Prior knowledge:
The protein is of the alpha/beta class. It has helices spanning 48-60, 165-168, 173-191, 204-208, 212-223, 232-243, 293-300, 307-322, 346-355, 363-366, 373-385, 388-393, 398-401, 405-418, 431-443, and strands spanning 63-66, 126-131, 135-143, 148-158, 197-202, 228-229, 253-259, 264-270, 283-289, 339-344, 370-372, 423-427. α3 packs across α5 (212-223) and α9 (346-355) crosses α14.
Amino acid sequence: MEDHDTGARAPEVGVSRASPPAPAGPSAGRHDRHAGPGGRHADHQGDAQKGKTRKRRKRRRGRKVFARDDNQAASAPAASSAPASRSPEAAPLPAASARPPQAAPRSPDASRPQGTPRPHQELPVFAALDLGTNNCRLLVAVPQRHGQFRVIDAFSRIVRLGEGLTASGRLGQAAMDRAVEALKVCGDKLRNRKIRKARLIATEACRSAENGVEFLDRVEREAGLKLEIIDRQTEARLAVSGCGSLVERDTQGVVLFDIGGGSSEIALIDLTGHRSPRLANHIVSWTSLPVGVVSLAERFGGRTVTRETFAAMVEDVAVRLRSFDGRDRLAHVLASPKFHLLGTSGTVTTLAGVHLDLERYDRRRVDGLWMDRDSVDRMVEKLVGWDFQQRVANPCIGADRADLVLAGCAILEAIRAVWPSERLRVADRGLREGILSELMADDGVWRNEGRGRQ
């Protein structure tokens, strides 16, 4: 099962056709769909070897990501009562010795003609993996110009790791099996490259499950990957870091939210003062609600959702938001036209796809899209009015999301009620992009970019 993330196949990341292209560098803005994954086909008049070389380059080229967050990692916005991370520091990818014996991957140099330049010869490779309650996602990238990186490989699959977790408190066997199989694919991709630094994270499902740590031990044994369980505070900060380039220079305030499968992170960002290159420095308040599309749908039902059921889901989330003490920290900018919401999740990207009436989901058109208040109202009303089969039939929802999308809409409606805004910006990006930006900045890859890094 594949999710909306089209991985290495997606063309332009950070530039939506619905909004003007963002400039490069610290003032840029991005939701994925990076610069094209390949160039033109080899010239038919060229020799066969030349054609092979160009095809190889086509496979390795990825998407260009625009990321503004280029300074050293900032301190966390607030103290967290969440569990400590399983492994606090990014480290080189663990050796594959934990995996069963297998044939060594073929070196990319083995078939490269002598004298042909190595692609990305001097560029270090970084990787980010996010194992969530619903999805398993991987990005592999190399740094480009200041504050930017190019994705050279990607993977995304819906695994529903948190299926049944709300009722049992434990990860189910079938769910763990699905996740392990997806992680084996990720492990193979990573071991076929020379990775300078990788950060491999697990979020709410592993964080809250009684057997979460036990499951990650299994992942290490069978997939050869050592994942860390991050706390909610770190998750909120990474979501902000990943979406920083979608916040324009004249913005005064943003409520950024990431509606996940098992939790929803919300960060209030005040930009009325001097602006730092790192958006996470401007977080003035944040919260993590222990409710996401999977957990909410399991409690209220996701297939048959009446208007009364939908209203009950909205109220359930609203009660949680009313206990958030920092919710008024942006009261001074809520009425400003330079305040907006910024959503990064399958919920908002699905709404955007339905809004655009896409015949198939297209990240290039969705990422960075602006939706006004009336458009969001209409799309939520449309989805609430559809039955399960109508949701399944929509190409931007499909069978994998049909029982979850209304739970996501309920969370969105509760957020909009607390922070009303005339505009919502849609981001098809998040934790992985935040991880990559922070890894590269911490490694210093952009410190001397003025000397000619391309």
